[in-house]
């Protein structure tokens, strides 16, 4: 392998693609999860119980589930650049429109429309990354991409808490300012996608002819050993055993990423009710600093050691165990520290999971399968928030709901270790591929 060509090409990819999609994913998750901060005021204004809030959160996932696979299949027809731009512009408009809701029913409708608008964005970007980054660097690329999600909590939660304090300006509630202001960046970025994201390596003006040739050849070699490739239809890929097992792992992982993330400010508020909303938003951001660090270190170490299985499953098991211990800890500081570890390790497997997935899948079948895997996980978003809200209303505690989350994470970690183990043929290929 030409080391200089490898280094310069990857440097260009990291500089030209990664920062922009990090920003896009930051905004996507900000618009999807800022309802958790808005809830600190909105629930009282709209007369929402914990169960009603959970239903409002869950409505997003109903439409997301319906439109996820069709969205990704359409993306392979019209091109990722155009389709990602369409997604961002429409969700920005809907997100800003959340500021106008007056009743619980209107909230449910707008959350449904938000899920419809955003469907396909995450799997679309994951598929886009797999079309540009060789598998030897894919986990690191995925970790950088998902840092956008994490930064939406590290930076976005405090920003959202600050905007919430605009309450009363021009006689407008703080949570309405929150939705109105944070919807605009998605619209702007959606327009910029058409200019910033090239369709294929051949369309990248910042790659030389030699770099384009090397990159296309390397990606072709990577795709030659996939389990589900271009010879599979997207429908047949959804019946593949590997795809189904990967879907189960991502489904169980989502108990943590969806269940904890969307309720974290409310959970921390229940632990420290005397604290202000600004303090709660800052405390809610800290676990995601750990998530950002754990994702990068786990992804980097997995790429360096060429090991996927334990890097995927073990963090999820540790996350579940940390949460289980946190539930029964009588010391608030210890419980909070364990929540930090729960979130950190829950996110740590993410880049490895998608690296494994895109190493096993390619072509249109990969686009559909990635969307399917993400869709299955979104059933958690549909059912878990209302369930957690109902349990909280019935028991006046989040403990029993969080115990369900902990068990799901541990089971998901065990299955993840099993499904991500390389086959004999693939294991034999790996040392050679690192030298090629």
From TrEMBL:
Q: Which SUPFAM superfamilies match?
A: MFS general substrate transporter (SSF103473)
Protein's membrane topology: Multi-pass membrane protein
Q: Where in the cell is it found?
A: Membrane
Q: Which InterPro entries match?
A: MFS, MFS_dom, MFS_trans_sf
Keyword Lipoprotein (UniProt)? no
Q: Which Gene3D superfamilies match?
A: MFS general substrate transporter like domains (1.20.1250.20)
Q: Could you tell me the keywords of this UniProt record?
A: Cell membrane, Membrane, Transmembrane, Transmembrane helix, Transport
Asked if the Swiss-Prot or TrEMBL record annotates the protein with the keyword Transport, the reply is: yes
CDD domains per the UniProt record, alphabetical: MFS_ExuT_GudP_like
Q: Where are the transmembrane segments?
A: 12-30, 50-70, 82-102, 108-129, 141-163, 175-195, 243-266, 278-297, 309-328, 334-354, 361-380, 400-419
**Domain spans labelled Major facilitator superfamily (MFS) profile:** 17-424
Q: Which Pfam families is this protein grouped with?
A: MFS_1
Q: What is this protein called?
A: MFS transporter
